[in-house]
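User: Run a structure prediction on this.
Assistant: Running it now.
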Amino acid sequence: MYALMTSAPPRTRWHGDNPQGTPLLLVRHRYRPGGGWKAHCHDFAEAFWVESGSGVHVINGGEQPLAAGDLVCVRPADCHESRAGGDGLTIVNASFAPAEVAALARRHRAYWPWRAGGAPRHIHLTPARMERLHVWAGELPLRCAALDRDTFLLDLTRMLSDQPDAGEARGPGWLRDALAIFADARHLAGGTATLAHLAGRTPEHLNRVIRRVHGRTATELVAELRLDHAAAALRMSDHAIATIAGAVGLANLGHFYARFQRRFGTTPRRYRQAARQATT
């Protein structure tokens, strides 16, 4: 068991410990097994995400396991430390002075992940969102413009606001990751067999877990994902309805129309017409 902090940790200050003088600082850290950062507090905000490896994060006296794909927000005055697991730990840390983004924090107060109160935010990201953070880390220059900084922080906020906390996530990580990949149009036509393959589980095991987590069968959940994608395609493209139905694996038009009407209360054609009339 990892020992918790037993004495007052040192305090890191943004203006005294940021020799770069930049409003947003991104740094990659690699820790060997057993290594990590020592207990400290700070007067700035930060977020870090785990690129690879595992470990333990101790924040405000509570322990959280760390795994690849985890994203954690650390607020001013939060005190934390870590230790890498047997496979090491690689993170990317993004830190910034709250005064630099005060207007963003006020405007998005309800969603701002660094607001005071409650537990610090800790979620597990899908592979697609981890890739987006990887791109951000590679593209943001040291002295990035305010527009780039604000866009990055709002992207982080969006990721954190539309996903449950790690402790409340719906189902195991392998299921969340598989569903995120499966939602791509390239996989929808494959149905439950493709979803099971992406999850690395048997169809029977997949169905049992989906029933427990989502309260429906794997077939019913796949049908919803297919119809949701079809609805988006009706709004965002000029493709024929038959083409859209076939692309999501519902090539039987009568079957597609019946399922679509049950889910959305109208036919695909009327759905498309209503969406276009509402925006012209």
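The chain has twelve helices and eight strands.
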